[in-house]
Amino acid sequence: MRGRFSGEIFIRAISIALILAAWGIASAVANDPQLLPGPVPVARKMASEAATGELWIHLFATLMRVLAAFVLALAVGIAVGMFMGRNRTANSWLDTLLVLMLNLPALVIIVLCYLWIGLTEAAAVTAVALNKIPTVVVMIREGARALDRKLDEVASVFHVPPGVRIRHFLIPQMAPYIAASSRSGLSLIWKIVLVVEFLGRPNGIGFQIHLGFQLFDVTLVLAYALTFVIVMLAVELLIIQPVEVRANRWRQA
Amino acid sequence: MIRLDLRHKAFGSTSVLGEIELEIKAGEHVALLGPSGIGKTTLLNILTGLDQDFDGTLASRSRIGMVFQEPRLLAWRSALENLMLVSGCSKETALDAMAAMGLSGKEDNFPSQMSLGQQRRLSLARAFAIEPELLVLDEPFTSLDHALVQEMLELTRSLARSRGMAILLVTHSGPEADFLADIHYRLEGTPARLRRIEGLTDQ
Fold it and tell me: How many domains does chain A fold into?
């Protein structure tokens, strides 16, 4: 097990090195530091932005928006998805709205939120959450439909209290669906947060990328984008994957 | 302890159960026989309160422990947790119930690490762990080998007797009914009705 684990880390390290090397070669061939700076100038830019404190301010602002939108989208999405999965009439009523929301472009929702609510933090977070909720609903609804009704009967006959029912009957069955929507949610949400910041926020990674766009500063754009990719990679490796391993322990038994 | 006055039960336009009166008193051991598909499980669902969509009245004040046709365990919890979470009993009671079923040492196993026979015994232990006044058994011994069936029947009978609990056994095996129950009913006809029968059944 340990050998396989270190082997996998080795492969990952090599693949990262290969990507960096390809980037370096492409930049050398292009020979235009303004159009495609290499990994070294971008890393230097990240370091200097971090040293002035700018990087942390924008990173923090974006992370907070991602977190708020993520929590909101998951909470609403799980509640609506469970409701639609368990209740056929509710599903008939809400399904058309769901299909409509799934097909509404992210940009339309963002622009409408800014126009209706104003250029505020609430509008930004709402816009991002509204983009994500429909996909959470679709996944959770599938999970709710797959719930084992025979276990429901066990809980009813034995008068299992609601708290135990939710924690030990419901959540373990829903865990794979919640994990899947969290994972796809996180990557979708941070991409939309950047667009929201690009269009109407005075700080955040998206705002800095807007600045880089206006100044034609590709190094700045890449420095901020990569910082956030690294942070999200860390979230994936340090939080999401360990939680998943723990939740799936019984499957390997 | 439990009394059902059923006038009628239907699924859509299909009548399943006709007029049925059934009373089980404390400590009584009752068997319910009949061919597959006659409505035994439907009647059981009404008696246990799982199905409330029927025409009639049910008076039940007893604590019910039930063993289903399949073990119906939480695959993601250990054997001991399965007992404690569902029955709400203490750890000591759960350990005792497992020991009585010959499952000592299996406490930390997940259900998938146990044989079908062990899973069925765990499901029986779970029903005993809530210390029921009425133990309901819905064909709990199907697809088990003969020796194991006999072992489980004896365990069930001795535990039920020593604790004075009533039993309602649903089965289509005459010998099982004879072994475990003193009062035998047969479900027959369309819509099905109950008929009391005597002694050794041929089915």
Answer: 1
Yes or no, beta carbons of B77 and A250 under 8 Å apart: yes
Model pLDDT for residues A188-220, shown as the tens digit of each residue: 898 999 999 999 899 999 999 999 999 999 999
pLDDT tens per residue, range B46-95: 999 999 999 999 998 788 999 998 999 999 999 999 999 999 999 999 99
User: Hey, what are B109's tokens?
Assistant: 């196993």
* B64 close to A (CB below 8 A): yes
Its pTM stands at 0.76
CB-CB under 8 Å, B110 with A164: no
Boundaries of domain holding A66: 48-252
**Residue A41 lies inside a defined structural domain of this protein:** no
CA pair distance B176, B32, nearest whole angstrom: 11
**Is residue A35 in some structural domain?**
no
Distance CA A128, CA A68 (A): 9
Nearest 5°: the CA angle A34, A35, A36 is 100
- Decide if A68 is inside a domain: yes
Residues B86, A161: C-beta atoms closer than 8 Å: no
| A246/A153 Cα distance (integer angstroms) | 27
Of B66, B72, B76, the CB nearest to A172: B76
User: Is B86 in contact with A154 (Cβ distance < 8 A)?
Assistant: yes
What are the structural domains, with CATH classification, of chain B? 1-63+132-143+166-203 (3.40.50.300)
Contact yes or no for A250 and B76 at CB 8 A: yes
Select from A156, A168, A250 the Cβ nearest to the Cβ of B85: A168
Tell me the pairing of strands B134-138 and B64-67: parallel
DSSP classification of residue B54: S
CA distances from B146 to B81, B117, B149, B150 (A): 29, 11, 5, 6
Does residue A180 contact residue A139 with C-beta atoms inside 8 Å? yes
Shortest distance between the Cα of A246 and any Cα of chain B, in A, equals 11
Judge whether A147 lies within some domain. Answer: yes
With a CB cutoff of 8 Å and minimum separation 6, the contacts of A212 are A218, A219, A220, A221, A224
Whole-complex ipTM: 0.88
E-assigned strand segments in B97-182: 134-138, 166-170
- List CB contacts of B187: < 8 A, sequence separation 6 or more: B32, B33, B34, B38, B39, B40, B43, B193, B194
Q: Does B74 touch chain A (CB under 8 A)?
A: yes
